[in-house]
Every structure is written in C-alpha cells, then in structure tokens.
Amino acid sequence: MVKEKIKVENFNLYFKDKKVLNNINLSIFENKVTAIIGPSGCGKSTLIRSFNRMNDFYNAKVDGKIIFDGININDRNIDLSNLRTKIGMVFQKPNPFPFSIYDNVAFGLKVKGINDKSFIDEKVVKSLKDVWLYDEIKDRLFDSAMSLSGGQQQRLCIARALANDPEVLLLDEPTSALDPKSTQKIEELLEVLKKKLTIIIVTHNIAQAGRVSDYTLFIYLGEIVEFGETKKMFTAPENKKTEEYITGIFG
Hints:
Order of helices and strands: EEEHEEHEHHHHEHEHEEHH
CATH class of the largest domain: Alpha Beta
Shape: globular
Number of helices: 10
CATH topology of the largest domain: Rossmann fold
Number of domains: 2
Helix content: 25-40%
Strand content: 25-35%
Largest sheet: 6 strands, mixed
CATH architecture of the largest domain: 3-Layer(aba) Sandwich
Number of strands: 10
C-alpha cells in the first residue's frame, strides 16, 4: 500500500496580482517518482518550488496547505533551513559551487556546524557512491568541481543534496542541459534512489516522464488537469486535453 508523503490542499500561489497556481489538491507518495508535465509557462516549476518554499525568494503569496511530516510548510514559523534540508532540490543547469568536488558535497554538513572530519569524509564518499560518481573521480576529490563534465556536475549536485539526508528530492528539468548518455545515467539513478527517497521531477520530455515516473501530474494554465499512475495515464488518459498533450497535438 502506498503511503502519502506530501499532501497539498486547496493551494493557490500569486506573484503580485497574478494567480499562477489555482486550487491545487494533490498527494505525493513515499518512495515513488512523481513527474510534473505540461507546456512551458503552465506553472510546473512554480509548483515544484512550492514544496520547499523556494518561491519565497520571488515574493510569492500563497494560501492553502502543503502538509509534510504532519506540518503545514506554509506556516510562518516554519524553519526554512531545516525544511530545505529535508526537501532537497536540484536545478535545471548543473550549479556546482566554485570549490573542490569534496567541498561541494561537504558544504551542507559544514553549514550545519558539523566539523567531525571522519564523519564528513564518510558522508562525502557515500554520497558520491550513491550517484555513481565516486569511481570516476576518487583520485581527484580535491580538484575543482568545475573540471567535471556537465553530466558529472549534475550528479555532483544530486550528491550534495543527498549528503544532507533528505526525505524528498526535487528535480527541476535535471537533464535538459545534458547529452543523451548523461541523461540515461540520471534516469537509471532515479530508479535506485527512489528506494530510499521520494522524488518529484519536472520535465518537458514526455517520454522521460513515461520512463522514470510512477505517477504523473499534468498541469495546464496553473491548474491540475489530470493526476494518476503514469502507465494508466499514458495508455488511457481520462481527460481529452491530457491525451492531446501526451500525443503531441498541442504543447
């Protein structure tokens, strides 16, 4: 039986006077991959950024609830640093810090005040192994992260998030800037990571959503059109607009 990890209730989001997300009601299930699909400008990235309050940086106003660990993350007194540790995020373009590979992965631990070198060493190695990067770079851990290829940099960014032991991982178009081989490696990695994480991924690539996700959310003009198991939605969508988008009639 699937277990609910995040529950969204009557959620609305505004940028100034513009309503960008309208009456979102949604369940995100534990240890599953949920893909968010829809045409450009429909609210996909805004929605995924809502799960760890990244829209706060854009002065968004919200109402409704997003329940995580029994707490509404939109409450004013929420500890945002703790929230963003538990709900990590990886962005569209790889964004390694201009530090060494080691220091990139260790960054979040040091920010939290952890100074135990043996603990940090262990975490760095484990996180790099978890993203299948360690064997490729184990002899140059203290080289600049900027020396890595694009695909390696993106896996490094995932490792950096994993070092903080998140419960949920948000991925906003994580492979759109990568070559096909690197994309395949990230997709294969998600299948392994979901055994211990809940994953939400925004993608423009409908085929990718079909390959990697257990559930798919189709959003259009800031509203949910359809949500359900990916296999069912991709073979027998309930909504005509979903069928048109998946088959490429519009989008």
